[in-house]
Amino acid sequence: MDHNPDRIAVWPGYFNAKTSRRSGRRVPRDSSVLKPDLEGLFIASRALGLRKIKREERVSHPNRPHGKEGRLWVSKKGANESIGASTKEEILQLIGGQWRQMQKDQRNDEKEAQKRGPKVGDKRARSQRKGANKARAAQARAQRSQKRRR
């Protein structure tokens, strides 16, 4: 691919919370995410307001040739117009912050759905819940009987 000074390559590996800065993470821990992938990076970039982006799948980073993580090409000019970030570092931190917030929201939604329990018509989930309650009750009885023996 020919050189274009207006484009920035953004790799999902830049946002991996499990890797160190030395290993290739380019954003601070508070802007990093667990298990970054190209789809999440693309969605976070769109949610942030970036419009001039191009997704390139099954491409490996030069320092990580074993993994075909893909990359995102972001226009510097488009990023400056839409979000006001002119440097690659600013763009990466804004994308990382947005992505991390999206992951937190998704986890909170999943927890809320689990607290609410299964839907009314979902017989399979209800029966699993009933079985779990029976197991908890049996465990509580066993603990009470052990306390009595002491």
In short:
The chain is mainly α.
If you had to describe this structure to a student in words, what would you say it looks like?
This protein has 150 residues and is mostly helical. The chain has two domains: 110 residues, 2-Layer Sandwich (Phenylalanyl-tRNA Synthetase, Chain B, domain 1); 33 residues. Helix content is 49%, strand content 9%. The chain contains four helices and three strands; from the N terminus they run E-H-E-E-H-H-H. A three-stranded antiparallel β-sheet has the order 1-3-2. The longest helix has 29 residues. The chain starts with 6 loop residues before the first strand and ends with a helix.
CATH structural class of the largest domain: Alpha Beta
CATH architecture assignment name of the largest domain: 2-Layer Sandwich
Please state roughly what percent of the residues sit in beta strands, choosing from under 5%, 5-15%, 15-25%, 25-35%, 35-45% or over 45%. Answer: 5-15%
Strand order, biggest sheet? Answer: 1-3-2
